[in-house]
Design a protein that fits this description.
three-stranded antiparallel beta sheet; 23% helix; 7 helices; 239 residues; five-stranded parallel beta sheet; alpha/beta
């Protein structure tokens, strides 16, 4: 409502394609075929989360199941905690949780050998075991986790679960434009949130950095200032 008071038009729809006709003209086509033209673009399309395929996680999420040790590690203090992750993510999450508890088990959920020897040695020194069998399901009492069931019939009793989330861009608009990306597929930006494509900006979780609402809002504000500055004609700029 506040944006509308200043003349902003809010459209409920999805962008299917973006065509760059020149550095100063972009044509965005919505799924219903409507074209929109602009001189600047801000990509704030976010990312999609990929959860581990463990039935029952969603029922306890936010209560006794979490994905961020920085945000929710305190809730695991002195509790039996399972980390569902593989590779460096598993080791990093476990190391972070040692601030709060030493009763930690890693479950790679059917990905044997994903944790490198160097990280394994550190985990061994901290007496953090690694279970590599696939997980069948999470059993709980309401939102309170009780145990994880492995495909061999064994169970792991626990009080808290932390899992690693996979991320990928919510769509391919940055790819269509040819924006430079990092190894994780996120759009690379400078300190003004300018992408590698002139007059295309990106902000929020689609760019590298912490996935926090307050950080996304801040990056959007910085990008907006830079977009406004880029629209000032050369003859009105200071040398």
């Amino acid at each position: 409502a506040e944006a509308a008071r200043y003349g902003a038009e809010l459209l409920d729809g999805c962008v299917s394609t973006i065509h760059q006709e020149s550095e100063e003209r972009f044509v965005v086509t919505l799924e219903d075929g409507r074209p929109l033209a602009s001189r600047r673009l801000l990509l704030a399309i976010g990312i999609k989360d990929v959860w581990p395929k463990v039935p029952g996680l969603d029922q306890c999420y936010g209560q006794t199941v979490h994905h961020c040790p920085d945000c929710d590690g305190y809730e695991a203090r002195d509790k039996r905690t399972v980390v569902i992750a593989s590779g460096r993510s598993a080791a990093g999450m476990a190391f972070s949780l040692t601030t709060w508890t030493r009763e930690i088990i890693i479950c790679t959920n059917g990905k044997p050998g994903s944790i490198e020897a160097r990280e394994r040695a550190k985990l061994d020194a901290l007496r953090i075991p690694i279970v590599e069998q696939p997980l069948v399901r999470l059993e709980s009492d309401g939102a309170k986790v009780r145990q994880l069931v492995l495909d061999d019939g064994n169970v792991i009793e626990c009080d808290r679960i932390f899992f690693a989330i996979g991320h990928y861009p919510a769509d391919d608009l940055g790819v269509q434009l040819g924006c430079k990306r990092d190894d994780e597929g996120l759009i690379v930006v400078d300190d003004k949130y300018r992408t590698s494509v002139p007059n295309v900006f990106a902000a929020g979780d689609i760019t590298p950095g912490p996935h926090l609402a307050i950080a996304a809002a801040g990056s959007g504000a910085i990008a907006a200032l830079a977009m406004h500055a880029s629209l000032v004609p050369d003859e009105r700029r200071l040398d």
